[in-house]
Write a structure and sequence with these properties.
Layout: E1 5-7, E2 22-25, E3 28-34, H1 49-66, E4 74-81, H2 87-98, E5 104-109, E6 119-126
Parallel strand pairs: 4-5
Antiparallel strand pairs: 1-2, 2-3, 3-6, 4-6
Helix pairs in contact: 1-2
Length: about 130
């Protein structure tokens, strides 16, 4: 078995700490939490929650693609919200991205997220070669 391999893409924000955007080990891709930062600026585009969630989902998709995976191969997603009152909006946008694919999921309310984000998502997925 080969050693875990870090994944990096310029299409998602650079890690803001001592971690990788994702790690491939065997046929599995472990994606670190993605928030709604614009990868070109490292900043949020605006204060709109909808755009923040969409950007985080786009970042997740970009990291999945860099790791030879995609949303339809996600087995587990973990969502972090700073306000559970945002659950309905998050759920709607999340559903639009995943379509008919329904990975296992946990949603947790937290007291804070990096850089003041209101939403974060991490995931575990199979790689295309693992299919």
């Amino acid at each position: 078995m080969s050693a875990p391999r870090p994944i990096h893409t310029e299409r998602a924000p650079t890690a803001i700490g001592p971690y990788s955007q994702a790690i491939v080990t065997g046929d599995l891709l472990f994606v670190s939490g993605q928030i709604g930062l614009d990868p070109s600026t490292g900043q949020f585009r605006n204060e709109n929650l909808h755009s923040e969630i969409c950007r985080a989902m786009d970042n997740l998709s970009a990291v999945l693609e860099a790791g030879d995976s995609e949303l339809s191969l996600v087995s587990l997603a973990t969502l972090y919200l700073t306000d559970m009152n945002d659950f309905a909006e998050v759920n709607e946008i999340y559903g639009n991205y995943f379509g008919d694919h329904r990975p296992a999921r946990a949603t947790v309310e937290v007291s804070g997220l990096p850089k003041g984000a209101r939403f974060e998502i991490s995931a575990i997925a199979q790689t295309r070669s693992g299919n």
